[in-house]
Prior knowledge:
By secondary structure, the protein is of the alpha/beta class. The chain is built from nine helices and nine strands.
Amino acid sequence: MDPFAEHPEVYARWAERGPVNVHYDRPAILRLVGDVRGRRVLELGCAGGTLTSLLAGRGARVLAVDREPRLVAAARARLGDRARVEVADLERPLTFVADGSVDVVVASLVLHYLADWAPLLAEVRRALVPGGALVFSLHHPITGWLLSDRTDYHRTELVSEDWDWGERWVTARLYRRPLSRIFGDLRRAGFTVDEVDEPLPEPAADLDRELAGILTTQPVFLFVRALRVTA
């Protein structure tokens, strides 16, 4: 079962307060996004709208999407008229997003749920203005390799991991890709990589010792800012 479809409310609450999201993923994403005042931002996989709210609070004009209707409802309740939130399947064309209508696309921990992300990358390129940025995070390829059966690093494959969402344990299934596939697919889709980050958590983060040890010494997520080529 898909835990995001089965327990969307639990996930929304955990994504809002989970220490990895609060002190590790969102600060890195926001740093790579930079100044968004007055900029048009498309957020892919917005869940309950926590990151959406931060982007809107920084002055962005946000269109956020998620495939789960109950998560979209939660995001709409949180955001009111501060952002537009729609139901959208990222494996289908984003027909309601006009060509060249977006300055920044943000995808926090969502792209690794797609077996084939090339069609979505093409959609993102279409939606972005020339020179516009795609900022995303995903599970680190080394972490994905360790979750696999380790028989073929070079393939894209489905792996699973057990997560504690505070109120319940779930098993998530996601796709791991080798580094060459990640960056090769970006290049083939018409992007140039502007920055790659493997950050540490915030210095003042309130983390328990075990989690702090993991986040400060092990590969967990990979963060990328890629720019749509102008040609």
